[in-house]
Amino acid sequence: MEAKQKARNVYCISGGISKFAKARPDVTFQPMVKEAYDYALKDIGLDTRKARELFDGSVASYFSDHFQRQLMSGIMVQDYLGLCPLPSHRVEGGGATGGICFQEAYKNIASGIMDICVAYGFETMSHVNTWKGNEFIALASDISFDYPVGGFYSGYYAMMVVRHMKEFGTTVEQMAHVSVKNHINAFHNKYAQKRKRLTIKDVRNSEMVAWPLTMLDICVMSDGAAVSILASEEGIEKIRKATGKRPKPVKVTGIGRGTDAMRMSDRPHKDVILLPHEKKSDYKGLKYPGIHSFRAGRTASKLAYEHAGITNPLKEINFVELHDAYTSSEIQTYEDMGLCKYGEGGKFVESGAPFMPNINYGLGKLPRQGEIPVNPSGGLIACGHPVGATGLMQSVFALWQLQGTIKKHLGDETLQVKDAKRGAIHSHAGTGTYVTVSILEKV
Amino acid sequence: MATQMNTKPVTTARLVSASAEREKVKLPETDDGTILFRVPFPKDLKDLHNMSPIIIKQPYHVDYIHSFGQDSPFFAGLANGKLLGTKCPKCGYAYGTAKVHCMECGALCDWVELPQVGRIHTFTVCHYGSEEFLKETPFILILVEWDKVNTLFLSRLVGVDPKDMNLNWVGKKVRAQFKRNAKFRPTDVYFVPAEEEC
Fold first, then answer.
1. Nearest CB partner across the interface for A150, out of B103, B126, B151
2. pTM
């Protein structure tokens, strides 16, 4: 299993996000996507008509048909955006749907089939109550063996982190660090749903959902949309000719994806899949992935890094937007992505490495603060998680970081990672069933 | 305030003359109504862009005919007090949750009886859950492990106080118990602390 790379150069050139909210009863999903789409078009000087003339097609991203009780929502967005009769298709892969959509748009460009492709994603989760919503999400677990036992994703993640705690000594306070970091980051992100200054105590004292995960360890349900526009060099040139202004592109230099069994109980207990900077002796006696680690996340990282030529991610990546549906899964993902070794994720967050360097988190002196900001946007925990939009939202934030346009888009430059040259985005489904990692670079 | 609208059957106006020979084309009419919260309407149509959304409730109930298919013997086993897993005759990989074809080598697996005493590989106490299980909270989920079995099994643990949860539960021995009246769900088996642990 090795990354293969015989493709055209692909660039991300524009993006937009609707303000993530608990509910958007003022609109159905189509105008919500249009908010993000129009923003992305405006940023490169296009309008609906011109976009339809120049663009070659789109990919639609949304997870659940249950939430809306509407099949083929994708085409309803396509027509509302004025993109008919251009080619399009819908992708679905649970929580990773947005990340998969981004990569499918990448493939449309890389293969030479398209010069400009729109990746749009959305989810409207407010149409059912939170616990019915949890039931729908739990249907993304084996309905013969898992769901009927008490199917509940927070329960599944709780079982995973209990094993992580037992295996590696990870603590609930370390997990709370993630929540504090992401909520405080989101304080500076106007698109985020939850913008809060929290303390470790607040996180631990909030209501218990599934031990040891509290309400503030877990992302919430959201309504929201995000759009990312990808193009080839020819596509960028077409837009320049049409508008007289060259978009500021960011290059997509690597994509990777991995999978694992749907049922957690089916995960193997074998050897660690190593990244270039790791040795077999680092993991003597560790059974992998078990349920404490994500083999899909490691595989996706490995392939994306090979594709982008990254051999030591901590040293060669400037920021990461990753899928923190749970504080615990952010810690697990540091390890899968090789930002630290397996087992060191708890200590890694405690050290301050994934915090922004310029923000006071009220946690005293963090020895490694700002080494590699993770989820500067606030991540899923604070931005919200409208599933189909989430992975694309990450790509938009990564684009703005690498363009150096955070201030322009957020009206606040606190979250701008200084001199960001390379970023990684990570999208994750199920209990780690589909995971995508994509690498974006400043050009 | 809720307004009950349109609860009576509606007589459709005739769209074609009675003398017309061809059959009348019309959508079928039903007499179910809609509970509509708020029905605003402005005098000036320009103001419609500022109108509040109309939000209605749409119940949705479905009975699925779900076949356990190749996994059916597992549920038949539970109904007979047996906990079944599978084992690959070719490569020896053993499944704590039945897989009828081996994920490792693709061969057809044999059904085997699992030991009724295993250990807690991990656990959680759910204080919330999906709507269907909310009424059962707090409940304890565990993954059970066995020596010489390569994969795990998801189940409920009863007979311990959820308030006592701590990491030392990992590794404790648990014993399978079966419901007398099988419901043909995986919860026909559940686990209790094995006697030597009491």
1. B126
2. 0.92
Cα distances (Å, whole numbers) of residue A48 to A52, A213, A218: 6, 45, 38
For residue B95, the SS3 value is strand
pLDDT per residue as tens digits for the range A362-405: 999 999 999 999 999 999 999 999 999 999 999 999 999 999 99
CA–CA dist A12, A116 (Å, integer): 10
Tell me which chain B residues have a C-beta less than 8 angstroms from the C-beta of A291: 121-122, 143, 152
Residues of chain A contacting B121 with CB distance shorter than 8 Å: 163, 291
pLDDT over 60 (residue B89): yes
Selected for mutation to probe chain B from A28, A30, A71, A152 (highest B CB count within 10 Å) is: A152
Asked if A291 lies within 8 A of B143 by C-beta distance, the reply is: yes
CATH code of domain B69-197: 2.40.50.840
Question: Could you confirm whether domain A10-125+223-243 is CATH 3.90.1210.10?
Answer: no
- Sorted by where each begins, the domain ranges of chain B are 69-197
Asked if residue A222 lies in contact with residue A193, where contact means CB atoms within 8 angstroms, the answer is: yes
Partners of B122 on chain A (C-beta within 8 Å) are: 159-160, 162-163, 166, 291
Beta strands in A288-428 (DSSP E): 288-289, 319-321, 422-428
Strand order in the sheet with B94-95: B94-95, B84-87, B110-113
- What is the ipTM score, two decimals? 0.94
